[in-house]
Specification:
By secondary structure, this protein is α+β, with helices and mostly antiparallel strands. The protein has 8 helices and 15 strands. Helices cover 25% and strands 31% of the residues. Helix 1 packs across helix 3.
Length: 305
């Protein structure tokens, strides 16, 4: 079996760009690794994005706002350009409140310590005068890939879902060159270039992509069985529980005996064990079977003894 022994060197590296050289690789493995890394980096690295906004005084995306030089669509297009770093599992709300005149910037948004805006100089819009104000609530979520706004609607009037691009990786390019070690001249040299949105470094996303690939390949070597879904108990509809014993199509004698025994509804009946039902006057083994069969037709059954 081939034992991979190679080095990874960052020839150029910054917060949002790095050029990695991976060598030496066995012939053909330059393309194998390069293509695999590129696919995973562009599709499977989690990130954060704004998924929904609520602008005071605006009911939908085609409304206009007095005092804002841009229309709502233009404002939303700029909001989509905001890049955030957020690691939380639950959605978090951030807020912007601004009084004019002047530019509205991403840096004007009030964020908690768990959220960081990496492009605070981004201009979202412009307010015309000192009488003009704007307030926007943003919902930030973590996710993978791309989430279109179509098919989503806000829970209350005025909530506007927007397209969300979660992936922090903007571009990945690779090329394979020849390299040599000693007398061997048939080895590969992989040059991998990664550009991110500054919410995460190229080195971090490269390691994360490698972990994702390793997890998939390890499933081949040491497969894990998928967790079995537990059978959910069927919820008993409240209407069934409130049915009177006379509504179970029981013989009149049995229904009257249950009623006299204080068991007038399905809810009270299913709480009693069969052996306790036998203590009710005029009920025997045959009656218990008839009662149980009638209950099962309604989706319930007698309590097990």
């Amino acid at each position: 079996m081939l034992e991979p022994v190679f080095t990874i060197k960052a020839e150029k590296e910054s917060q949002d760009y790095a050029k990695f050289v991976i060598e030496p690789l066995e012939k053909g493995y330059g393309n194998t690794l390069g293509n695999s890394f590129r696919r995973v980096l562009l599709s499977s690295i989690p990130g954060a994005a704004i998924t929904q906004i609520k602008i005071r005084g605006i009911k939908h995306r085609f409304s206009t706002m007095v005092g804002l030089r841009e229309d709502t669509i233009e404002l939303i297009l700029q909001i989509k350009q905001i890049r955030l770093a957020y690691q939380g599992k639950k959605p978090v709300k951030i807020t912007l409140e601004k009084t004019g005149p002047g530019e509205i910037k991403a840096g004007d948004i009030d964020v908690p310590s768990t959220v960081k805006i990496v492009n605070p100089e981004l201009v979202l819009g412009n307010l015309a005068s000192n009488k003009d104000k704007i307030k926007i609530d943003f919902m930030v979520e973590q996710g993978v890939g791309y989430l279109p706004y179509e098919g989503r609607s806000g829970n209350v009037l005025g909530e506007i879902p927007i397209d969300a691009v979660f992936t922090p990786v903007l571009n990945v390019a690779y090329k394979v060159e020849n390299t040599r070690v000693g007398r061997r001249t048939d080895l590969d040299r992989l040059v991998l270039e990664i550009t991110t949105d500054k919410t995460i470094t190229p080195t971090e996303v490269l390691k994360e992509a490698a972990q994702i690939l390793a997890a998939f390949f390890n499933q081949v070597v040491k497969p894990k069985k998928p967790p079995q879904e537990k059978k959910k108990k069927k919820a008993i509809h409240s209407e069934v529980m409130t049915l009177a014993v006379e509504e179970l199509n029981l013989p009149t004698r049995i229904a009257n005996s249950l009623r006299r025994g204080g068991l007038g509804t399905v809810e009270s009946l299913i709480k009693v064990a069969p052996e306790d039902l036998l203590k009710v006057k005029n009920l025997g083994e045959k009656s218990i079977k008839i009662i149980d069969a009638a209950l099962r037709e309604k989706g319930v059954a007698l309590k097990k003894g």
